[in-house]
């Protein structure tokens, strides 16, 4: 319960473009790993490991991005960036699913576990870059992750991830509206991102 509440808090902080979204995500991941260790859900554990590693990286990206202006500029990814994100996600999912199939003790649901694992990475990379596609990636992950959580006996996690959907829609709207504000178009953005 604590891990999921922290996850909701991290999403709400991300919606507000607060750099504190990242350490809260990191803490949420650590708490959820402890909870998931009792079940055979390597995709969910892997997802949280990705959350921890990527949260540390995203935190540094956003700290750099807000150093001068105190805010994080967000934007839609370019078409080449979107293509790279989608291609990387698809290739990563297939590769990881094949690995899970080759070693069945790693996953009882190779394709869904791989999809959740790689989709989470894609979402968090997009968030760290300040791309609005981050919100769409979370929707895509939750489409598989919510039913899997319920099916695995983690009903509270499934319910919490269902609530994410509402926050994701609100966050997407907020970020999209911020791209319309001229003052944010010239703000400093995370390293590797152009306004």
Structure description:
The chain has 195 residues and is an all-alpha fold. The protein has one domain. It is 75% helix and 0% strand. It has eight helices and no strands. The model is unreliable at 183-189 and 191-195 (pLDDT under 50).
When the domains are counted, the total is: 1
Q: How far apart lie the N and C ends?
A: 38 Å
Average pLDDT level: 83
What proportion strand?
under 5%
Spans where pLDDT lies below 50 across 5 or more residues: 183-189, 191-195
**H/I helix tally:** 8
Q: Outline, from the CA principal axes?
A: globular
Major sheet description: none
| Quaternary assembly | single chain
> How does the helix and strand content classify structurally?
mainly alpha
**What is the gyration radius calculated from CA atoms?**
16 Å
SSE pattern: HHHHHHHH
Proportion of residues in helical segments: over 70%
- The number of E-state strands comes to 0
GO cellular component, one term: plasma membrane
Main location: membrane
Family: Belongs to the nicotinamide ribonucleoside (NR) uptake permease (TC 4.B.1) family.
InterPro entries: NMN_transpt_PnuC
